[in-house]
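Can anyone check this?
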Amino acid sequence: MAIVHANKNITDPALRQDPYHANPSIPAVFRNFTGWKCGRNAAIGERIGDVKWINFKAADNQRVDLEMSMTDYYGEASAMIDDALVIGKSNNLDPEGDVLDFVSPRGVEMPQREYFWVKNVRFYNFNWNDAAALGTCSHCVQPEDLGARTSTIEQMWYDPATVTKKIMWNFPGRAILYDFDGTTTGLGPRSWATPYFKHNEQPEC
């Protein structure tokens, strides 16, 4: 089944004869989910279209708390996480040694495609190993698309006492975060975060 962006200029004659490709998407909205000690992920979505996760809570997950991988089918702000609480480690761990002590999870993992939007997320307790509040390029170890892709973030809050790393730039290190209000970069509204490369040292960057 081919999924076609509703705003694309359709050049395939077969698609031009099919009136359904231009239908507006119907959002799938999931609300009020809690994922705790789920092993890999609290919630993960593959090839996500117009899907929104609202008021999700996640804690003590070993790889990523909230993750979407393919998100560019329906345009800006269709695939979205809005209003989430993400805790890397809670106080409810095995006192004799917990598996979380040996891993480095991320709170929210950005997709390897365009148009993803994350807003109003609070992060706590990402302060051990290489744990980080945000990760980039979901599943880019499977090289389906290794280009630089942009995700938008806003209204993010990182507990200053327990979040020591905001962003983990996953392989291949080409992601772009558009910080709509500056709450992640600290550089003001409509600022950008990318991995460091020498060629980015330009006056406008």
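Reply from J.R.: I decoded it. The first strand starts at residue 28 and ends at 31.
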